[in-house]
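Hello again, I could really use a second opinion on something today. My current little project is about how a certain protein chain folds up. You're getting the sequence in one-letter code plus the fold written as tokens. Here's the protein in full, and shout if anything looks odd to you:
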Amino acid sequence: MMLLRALRVDLKVGLHGILPVLLGLSMVSVSCLIVAYTRVDAVGSVDVAELTFADNIALIFAGSLPFEYRPGVMFVPPLGWTLLSMLVLYASLSYPYRDLMGFGQQVLVRENSRVTWLLSKCIWVALTCLLGCTIIVLVAAIWTLVQGQGLTTVLHSDALYLAAMLMGPFKADMLDGAGFMLCIVVVLCSLSLLQLFLSIFLRPSISFLSMILLLIASAYAQTWYLPGNYLMFVRWGGFVEGGVDMWVGMMLCLGVALVFGVVGFGYFCKMDLVDREMAA
């Protein structure tokens, strides 16, 4: 019952001020789709009418090919993908720490309910991340209906042409994209939870900067241990030779979140809260 009360308060108070972030998510999602569809004329062989809802999700999370060093060429992370991921993470950044330094600290000291407080914040962070993903899904669904496309989870290799002008041959012409979309949710929720623990133990600004650096590193190099790779359609091993395995990505991110969760809960129960100062 105490957990439900704490979660109810978090949902009521913690979502204040999140509307601009959700609006930003929708705008960036639409921008990613517009940029992708402007490549239709350049590619020439893609029938837009054959694309699906899952293809539009994939185009929003297109990402970029791994950076290949060439003299005089500077690495630039994919703007739309980076901003989209940052906004999802930013949505749940400040409230837990702000509550810990304010009213939440008084409740913790008075009722000695640290486990309940932190568990409530973990659930709130996950739900906030899911809310951000829902906004992206709604944008993709509306775009799909406007384009007269199918609301299915089938992914087509043709979408890779629009995602990054990536030419074949590909491993398949079409695949079920449910696993790819599930992986996006799992990775973003895991990164949001990791950010939660880092923000409590360090600072929100440090934790957010760490997430940004992790995303940029993922955009730079394709490797199994950088989680941002699993958020990129153009690096999915289902279509691309040498791509990353989404199921490995989900297990990796869930494992990291679990380890940080266990260690974080143990450390939080012993942490001195009274002498901590409110700072971003």
